Amino acid sequence: MQYQDILKEIQEELLDFSSLGNVTTTIPELAKIDPNKFGIHLTTIEAKDFGIGDSQERFSIQSISKALTVALAFSYLDEKVWKRVGVEPSGTAFNSLVQLEYEKGIPRNPFINSGAIVIADMLVSCLANPKEDFLQFIRKISGSNTIDYNIAVAQSEKDNGFRNAALANFLKSFGNIDNNVDDVLDFYFHQCSIEMNCQELAHSFFFFANEGETKDGNKILTKSQVKRLNALMQTCGFYDESGEFTYKVGLPGKSGIGGGIVALYPKVFVVATWSPKLNKKGNSELGMHALEVLTTKTGMSVF
């Protein structure tokens, strides 16, 4: 497969794509990003790299981090994770309070904000130095020792994170947060602020496509655990647009309001895109279209 040629074709086709999306304004620090950035990077299961556009420029991965925190929590707690977080699509906004009340403090899945906050609480309990240990985990799976938190973005999230604070306190009232709420939120805001480029992001998700093993041979999860998390990304990775992504792209993946998307075809490749303009559901408009074109041109999807 001539992946580099295909990426060039995708980039050319996107020149004619009329984007109506907008950069997020919910986190003021992210609103400063150039909306016309676009990058895409694909890593094969043989660890060959292909990239184009702004694929080497780092950006805030935001909710993409939720797939990595749940993987780390799963590696520590295994099936105990699902006693506190569900595995069903939400069908509502990613920051819904209504659903959480209806379901008595058990978030529908680990990718909506309430679910990710519960996962953050698990990691605050499991890790000796949560922020430092999680950062070291990210550096290990990505193979890049210079990845770091963007402190300005984390602070911007904290300064404007009223709904997340409400969700965390609501979870605490139901007994589904064990640690101090401020400590959990601090970890959560930092995990979302992590900056990577498309290549680093593709490398970080390599173990999801490689039966739990990183590009460098580190075993992160069992084959069975990876199968379950890939299924969750397929059904829940794009909030209440997960069905649309499955229909058009046909790969498990995860998006973030920083404009990043990462998706994978098990045992074949991992691909990451970045374009800051978001659609009304909070997913990268250009990124979703690029991945639809990719799976159409290659004929590769899980279906």
TrEMBL record:
EC main group: hydrolase
Residues the record lists as binding substrate: 63, 113, 157, 164, 188, 239
Gene Ontology terms, MF aspect: glutaminase activity
Gene3D superfamilies, per the entry: DD-peptidase/beta-lactamase superfamily
Catalyzed reaction equations: L-glutamine + H2O = L-glutamate + NH4(+)
Keywords from the UniProt entry: Acetylation, Hydrolase
UniProt keyword annotation of DNA-binding present: no
EC number: 3.5.1.2
Coiled coil: none
Quaternary context: Homotetramer.
NCBIfam families: Gln_ase (TIGR03814), PRK00971.1-1 (NF002132), PRK00971.1-2 (NF002133)
Name of the molecule in the record: Glutaminase
Species assigned in the record: Flavobacterium kayseriense
